[in-house]
## 1
Amino acid sequence: RRGEESKVRLGMAARFTRAKRQDTLIDMMSTLMQRRPDIDWCLELPGDGETHEEIAKRVKAFGLESRVVLPGNLDELELASWYKTLDIYLHASDGETLSTSMLQAMATGLPIVGSNVEGIRGLLTGSEVCGILARNGDPCDFAHAVIDLVSDTERSKLLGRKGRKLCENEFSTNKMRTSYELLLRK
């Protein structure tokens, strides 16, 4: 873990839409606080979009204003710095093709908990297991996976290293350039 011993910083960077399921993560926070009240949980959800106001109201309704931060859109440099402040990256989306924010989190070496849906499943459990899958839309399953990672720092670090290695080996600029060159030669 990167932060203070009693503080755990979680985050998901995404556009605010129904499909990105920020609501699942708000509900997860209540579960985390009930199951592990000894931990100072903090969830940050940068981004903006159609459900931002709805999510802000949900945070207030749950009384989580001191635990959940909605910083709005972050520029590229702010986002790069933000990933480095996290302990665990979350991705509660209903589906993805290839998530840029997940790749950014992997490149930073973060362990990831993501929805068990097409795209996320393929990235986290494809050629190398580099994250934990939670039942889509299930805040309790997300909370359980987060608690497991917090409780097992060696596993958390290992998943982060595997994700970073996968990102470097399969999704680097050089790898993509080489793939495009091969494709164009055909």
Note: The radius of gyration is 16 Å.
## 2
Amino acid sequence: DAVRKEGLRRFEGFAKAVRELGCGMITLCSGTRNTASLWAPHPENGSDEAWNDMFDTVAAAVKTAEKLGIILAVETEAANIIDTPEKARALMDRIGSPNLKMIMDCANLFHIGEAHASNVRPVLRHAFELFGRDVVIAHGKDIKDSDGIEFCGTGEGIIDYGCFAELLCEYGYKGDMFLHGIY
């Protein structure tokens, strides 16, 4: 609790600096209960307590973002509290602010046992159906075909970038795509 409070205390100064630099967006991670690694899962991530802590923190950050005219963008991440498109949609709906949007990171949509080429198009389509109109950043990260979660350089995994680009266009995205891990 003290870490979240301190983070929020510092967030306003950070957000003001972002605005002064001419940036209009801050990306967020929904976090994990795993204290050893931000990218490692924890059995309590799915608990009501973890959701409520994350929600309260994001809601407070959104109030600051609204005051300063900044967009906050969050993404799904299998090892974090927001680990599904449904949870991402629930967060945005419950907060109800135009200052909270989404990062579309297709590689992060897969959980253990799901990262197979046959699942890519249905998984992407499902995520876009839930929050495609709220995407403000397209993150071109890739994942290998496996029963685990093994990220790889863009274009070296199973993400169908033609489908990704079509869905971005279909849902009105007009921005750039940030590529991840070009080798």
Note: The beta strands are 25-28, 71-74, 100-105, 135-140, 142-143, 151-152, 177-179.
